[in-house]
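Worked example 2:
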Amino acid sequence: MTEEQINILIGQNLTKARERAGYKLKDLAELVGVTYQQVQKYEKGKNRLTAAKLVMFARALLVEPSELLPEAF
């Protein structure tokens, strides 16, 4: 699996978790302290999430960080 593929899968998992939590992009962005455009880039896999940001998103969404990682991990 390439780095790009991993970023895309993490982004898809982030989108699913955000939607399950009932947040709009703007809501989640405010909770984490980034712009909604940045959340869009993370969700599309255009930008890589650092481990720290992944944990921050997981906390904001009330999920375990592992839920945002691809199943292969």
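Residues 5 and 45 are 8 Å apart (CA to CA). The chain has one domain: 3-63.
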